[in-house]
Amino acid sequence: MAMIEGICANLPSKCSKAKSREIQRVPDNAAVCAECGFALKRTAHKGPFPGRLVLIAVGAVLALGAIGVGLYHIFKPPQFPACDASGVAAVRNAPPETALALALACRDQGQLDHAVLVLSDLKEKGSGKAALLLGGLYDPLDAGQQTPKHLSPSILNAVEFYQQACTLKEPEAAARLAALRESAIKEAESGGDKLLRDLVDAWPECPL
């Protein structure tokens, strides 16, 4: 039943509750003074007691907060490993795409030692993409070779990793190998070491 609050509208001389202006809380269908039976002058709207409204509001806020926390823990993005020794160790058993993303992040930050460790581990597990990226770190034709994203250029090292990428069926490896051949010939003709000259004479190709 709805309750209201009101003050007795009787003359103060006729009712002590009217004189003291005591607020009375009574059912809506019996809005009269408990002492004199005179009609009450309402001081509040129909509905729940204000204190109860506050409790309901507080409860709703807390409930929404709890739901929000729960949803955050369910849908929050995974914490990406840092590019350090602990991060490298953490991705050893992670999905390949997670490990590859860390390797690229390490490379872009100039943390090449960590990038090489992650890529080497992925390559040993059969990732042609990792082998291709390792070759790119040494490839003198790779874009941005002079930036911290690369190691000292070495055609021999680049070709070795590109060959491994070919074996692992990496689609881009054949084009990378073919593009390097002209640079290898020029370097061999200008006094490159015997290994490079031998490589030029028996230039590898990706198996079909």
TrEMBL record:
The keyword Transmembrane is assigned to this record: yes
Residues spanning the membrane: 53-75
Keywords: Membrane, Transmembrane, Transmembrane helix
Database matches in Gene3D superfamilies: Tetratricopeptide repeat domain (1.25.40.10)
Name of the protein in question: Sel1 repeat family protein
Organism of this sequence: Magnetospirillum fulvum
